[in-house]
């Protein structure tokens, strides 16, 4: 990863943020990093809607729940319509899994990691972006969308078999989701002037994300997550670093920027040329269409 030295933002303590009145949606806010960020945002006064499958925070002030299975494009489309994009200040996309050792397919015929970790986000962004900010009054910054993944690490993805039907490797599929998410930031920043789009790379953090790959509750999963827990910051520590970034005034005018685990700006992956991004997104849209969902190009 290469630092982007042209973008520096003024750090502030998360505990001092006053976020009363801030309207936020965290898709994937029911678990892991999205949940830690949601807790912190709500504790500072923001109104947060978390989208996921299992609500773990009933009774927490400031957090509301929308239940959806985002492995299905039809449900992603419903979430996009249900969320009040017109009045939201901040959207954070953290939904994700890791591809399983053997190929899994959703009821709509899509490879499951591609569906949950990338294509559902494409449907959400295209469904919400044109409406973002339409009914906000006198807001100091444009509405923001943060897309969490693994940007800036040189992944370009490989075209031709995005649904992994000809051959399957969990790692190759997951790298297509990584590349797709970075391209979604780059493309959306160019496509929509009414909102700002940013990429987040949290680095390795102990969560549930690898359970599908390593086996939920398996010895291997518990050992690897234990090691990551020893070596890496916790989800809560990451949330303390990144939450001030989400609302920093210094990001205004920098749509398309990406940030590493410390919140420092990083450069996008060099291989993501305009032609490649266009081709990858066209193939992604075609894959979503197989689930009978059409994503808007506007
Ligand atoms: N942790 C890391 O080491 C790491 C490293 C690099 C990148 N990332 C990225 O960080 C983001 C967050 O990951 P995490 O570590 O926080 O993972 P996590 O703990 O597994 O959380 C993932 C979230 O996605 C939701 N989710 C999963 N399947 C879903 C489905 N079918 N429908 C709706 N929601 C679903 C989960 O909700 P439910 O539990 O309610 O299903 C949960 O809220 C991901 O984009 C990941 O790629 C993480």
UniProtKB/TrEMBL annotation:
Transmembrane intervals: none
Keyword Isomerase assigned: no
Entry-linked SUPFAM superfamilies: NAD(P)-binding Rossmann-fold domains
Keyword annotations from UniProtKB, A to Z: Oxidoreductase
Coiled coil region boundaries: none
InterPro entries: NAD(P)-bd_dom_sf, Sec_Metab_Biosynth_Oxidored
Protein name according to UniProt: SDR family NAD(P)-dependent oxidoreductase
